[in-house]
Amino acid sequence: MSKVINNTSYFQDNDIKRNQDILIEGATISIINPSDNKETSQSLTVPGFIDLQIYGSGGRLFSADPTVESLTIMEDDLLKKGTTGFLACMATNSPEVFDECIKAAKEHRSSAKNCLGLHLEGPFLNPKRLGAHVPSFVRKATLDEIKKLIDFGDGVIKMMTIAPEIQDDEVIQYLIDHGVVVSLGHSNATFDEATAAYNKGIQTTTHLFNAMSPIHHREPGIPTAVFNHDKAMASIIADGQHVNFEVLKFAQKLLKERLFLITDAVNACSTGPYQHVEKGNKYVMPDGTLSGSSITMLQAIKNCVTHCGISLNDAIKMGTLYPAQLIGIENLTATIETGQQANLLVLDDELNLKEVIFKGETI
Asked: What positions does the entry give for substrate binding (predicted)?
């Protein structure tokens, strides 16, 4: 089965290719040729978005209803919004809830579409930088606990946020050695402690500026450690609520390809330890503490372009190429070229979503 995206534009590296026909055979981009139609391209084709931290979608908060059905509902809703790859995230919680989430992810794995696995944000965090996380579940990890967790996860745990200053080096090294992307977050690490953590192999940073030691002219904190490092990456929430757009703007200028977008999106929930209440264009806990966002990946990209002056090409890479490179999962479409899996989005000239193509099929 084949289909063609006619007379479209797409980015190739730092250039834009206009008036192109993209032929899809089965699930793969097979041919890209100049179009016979010489009228100005009315669409832009980009890779599907990759969100490495999202808690809920389609009316479901995964940790509140840790079932295969919840993951399936999240998948279908996110596909319609252009997210063709995501990690279902769960916050600090009881061991029983963690087990239920992991069991559901393992059961769902054989039929998964765009769910790539789990991101565990906690419980091995610093109590001084919890944000909306529940203090009673936070603790220091033991190596034995981590070994059991990774063994029980059987490959579905792709990413974990930890506070490295309160964890033993052997715990961090075990996670890295077993293919888990380790992210520094909810941490009160000093500049030196954070730098040491990145040097030991921690690859990235969870929601830059939020729930971490801040920049101060006498205490440079975690953000400065990220900026000064040559490899450390960071995610950021581009909703204008978690981080001011001017701050996002200068962070992108410093980090460039080391900064990527997440939504950190939640759904309204009135049960369990995470009772998210929608307030305007954000979510808060019942006590008013800022919790997750309400944006989509497409809105995050639009915000980067409109409010931060980031080029469209760079903003798209922040939501596609850079997270794909970090997570390192095969067959993630992050560029448009022949031989790539056809996970593609067609946008109009105002960046509205016209079509979602997943594995060659229009959603």
From this structure: 132, 210-211, 218, 242, 290-292
* In this structure, CATH architecture of domain 2-46+334-362: Roll (2.30)
Query: Is 290 labelled as part of a ligand binding site?
Result: yes
User: Would you say 186 is a known binding-site residue?
Assistant: yes
pLDDT reading at 331 higher than 80:
no
Per the residue annotation, which of 77, 264, 314, 348 is the catalytic one? 264
Is 264 annotated as catalytic? yes
The 10s digit of each residue's pLDDT in 88-144 is 999 999 999 999 999 999 999 999 999 999 999 999 999 999 988 989 999 999 999
- 126 is annotated as contributing to ligand binding: no
According to DSSP, residue 127 is labeled: G
Going from N- to C-terminal start, the domains of the chain cover 2-46+334-362, 49-327
* Vertex 198: Cα angle to 197 and 201 (nearest 5): 95
* 318 DSSP assignment: H
Residue range 229-240, pLDDT digits in tens = 999 999 999 999
Burial code (b: 16+ CB inside 10 Å, e: under 16) for 11-42 equals beeeeebebbbbbbeebbbeebeebeeeeebe
Is residue 242 a contact partner of residue 185, using CB atoms and an 8 Å limit? no
How many CB atoms sit inside 10 A of residue 216's CB? Answer: 10
Separation of alpha carbons 304 and 312, rounded Å: 8
The Cα 158–Cα 263 span in angstroms is: 17
Look up the CATH superfamily of 49-327: Metal-dependent hydrolases (3.20.20.140)
**Comparing C-alpha atoms, which of 18, 44, 7 is closest to residue 316?**
44
What interhelical angle do 245-255 and 297-308 show, nearest 10?
Answer: 90
Cα(91)–Cα(150) distance, integer angstroms: 17
Single out the residue of 292, 289, 163, 158 nearest to residue 222, CA to CA. 163
Of 70, 53, 50, give the one whose Cα is nearest residue 62: 70
pTM over 0.85: yes
